[in-house]
Amino acid sequence: QVQLVESGGGLVQAGGSLRLSCAASGRTLSTYVMGWFRQAPGKERELVAAISRSGTNTYYVDSVKGRFTISRDNAKNTLSLQMNSLKFEDTGVYYCKSPATAWGQGTQVTVSS
């Protein structure tokens, strides 16, 4: 079974940047579409970005378009999310996920205004 571990979260001022990483063990990620989700306090978990198996195609929720970039390195079995121009409303716990994996612990992102 694939295990996913997220890292890279932290506290950052509005306008700052963070890069999240997701490492997989147990099975290669290259066969899966992958996504980054986030859950803000008091809100439902939402899909923020997704990437196709080859990395050719990406999807972003409107609120992060132009600021976030999802990428993957299938050779290293990793997934990343570069987050720039962070806003207070980006605060939440971020999770990486594929249709074949369980939810991990996530990584906390806190943006101070």
What does this protein structure show overall?
The protein is mainly beta. The chain has no helices and 10 strands. It has strands at residues 3-7, 10-13, 18-25, 34-39, 46-51, 58-60, 68-73, 78-83, 92-97, 107-112. The strands form 2 sheets. Strands 2-10-9-4-5-6 form a 6-stranded mixed sheet, with no helix packed on it. Strands 1-3-8-7 form a 4-stranded antiparallel sheet, with no helix packed on it. A hairpin with a 4-residue loop joins strand 7 (68-73) and strand 8 (78-83). It is globular. It starts with a strand and ends with a strand. The mean pLDDT is 94.
List keywords for this structure.
6-stranded mixed β-sheet; 4-stranded antiparallel β-sheet; 10 strands
List the helices and strands and how they pair.
Elements: E1 3-7, E2 10-13, E3 18-25, E4 34-39, E5 46-51, E6 58-60, E7 68-73, E8 78-83, E9 92-97, E10 107-112
Parallel strand pairs: 2-10
Antiparallel strand pairs: 1-3, 3-8, 4-5, 4-9, 5-6, 7-8, 9-10
How much of the residues is beta strand, in percent? Answer: over 45%
The rounded Rg comes to 13 Å
Strand order of the largest sheet: 2-10-9-4-5-6
Task: Find the structural class using helix and strand composition.
Answer: mainly beta
Count of DSSP strands = 10
Low-confidence stretches: none
How is the main sheet built?
Answer: 6 strands, mixed
Question: What's a concise summary of this model?
Answer:
The protein is 0% helix and 50% strand. It has 113 residues and is mainly β.
